[in-house]
Design brief:
By secondary structure, this protein is an alpha/beta fold. The chain has 2 domains: about 70 residues, 434 Repressor (Amino-terminal Domain), CATH 1.10.260; about 150 residues, Endonuclease Chain A (Endonuclease, Chain A, 2-Layer Sandwich). The chain contains 12 helices and 6 strands. A hairpin with a 4-residue loop joins strand 5 and strand 6.
Length: about 280
């Protein structure tokens, strides 16, 4: 049989395929036999093994189960899927999708959970033009915005507390119509029964306890997870002793920020373009 040689170092996709083939051969299975275990055709598995097709999360999980690989293939898939994201962020997204309560503070840009598709596309296009990301990474970022927002439609939905630095609503992104639609989204978000939206005005000055974006999650078992970013790295923290001071700072921020009614009024004023 003419078996195509693989170069696992050529791409993450090739590495995934090479590992799948190696573990299959070690088991003494043909592609037909592995396909029967996983619920896929041998033709489909051949295209995965040779790197011609991108594996899905479903396939990765079934490969782990069929080959007794723990979560090896799922982790490889997530690395491929989120390869352009900062360290810690892919894992944070997994926690975010299960959290009972989400608290976030953002500076300078509307957070992904609240972005319209048009607003997100403008940001992505800007990064693409600067050469900061590739076209593939741009597509990944836009898709991720949609995927993350699905967590707001869960049953039951999480409680979501959002504090936006005033810079988020003062910074123009795209054409006026993009910002108008984004302001409408913020106002709609504030009207939901499971959300609280506040603006931290510039006038808070030195009383603002946080200067960088922060996310704090309360999981169903009441454990805490936090995520923060520097310019080049993301930091995921799961130790309560480290997260609790951040949660305290977040509560202090909420206490000093505008009420939701005053915040919505500021957003409506910004939408009209009035000073």
């Amino acid at each position: 049989m003419n078996i195509k040689e693989l170069d696992p170092d050529s791409s993450p996709q090739a590495a995934f395929g090479a590992r799948l083939r190696r573990l299959r051969v070690e088991r003494g299975w043909t592609q037909d036999e592995l396909g029967a275990e996983m619920g896929y055709s041998s033709t489909h598995l051949s295209s995965i093994e040779t790197g011609r097709k991108m594996p899905t999360l479903r396939l990765a999980r079934r490969a782990d189960a069929a080959l007794g690989a723990g979560d090896t293939f799922e982790r490889e898939w997530r690395e491929m899927r989120h390869g352009s994201l900062l360290e810690g962020f892919p894992e944070f997204i997994e926690h975010e999708g299960r959290a009972a309560e989400i608290r976030l503070y953002e500076v300078g840009v509307i957070p992904g959970l609240l972005q319209t598709a048009e607003y997100a596309a403008v940001l992505t296009e800007s990064s693409l033009r600067r050469g900061a990301i590739t076209p593939g990474q741009a597509e990944e970022r836009n898709s991720l915005v949609t995927e993350r927002q699905a967590t707001l439609a869960r049953t039951p939905p999480p409680m979501v507390f959002v504090v936006l630095d005033e810079s988020c609503i003062r910074r123009p992104v795209g054409e006026p119509a993009v910002m108008e639609a984004q302001f409408d989204r913020l106002i709609e978000f504030a009207e939901l029964p499971n959300t609280v939206l506040q603006v931290a005005p510039f006038t808070m000055g030195h009383r603002r306890p946080l200067s960088l974006p922060l996310y704090v999650l309360t999981m169903p078992d009441r454990s805490l997870v936090s995520y923060a970013e520097s310019a080049q790295r993301g930091f995921l923290e799961r130790e309560s002793t480290s997260v609790l001071p951040l949660l305290t700072a977040y509560h202090q921020l909420q206490a000093e920020a505008l009420s939701q009614a005053a915040s919505v009024a500021m957003i409506k004023q910004a939408r009209k373009g009035t000073p």
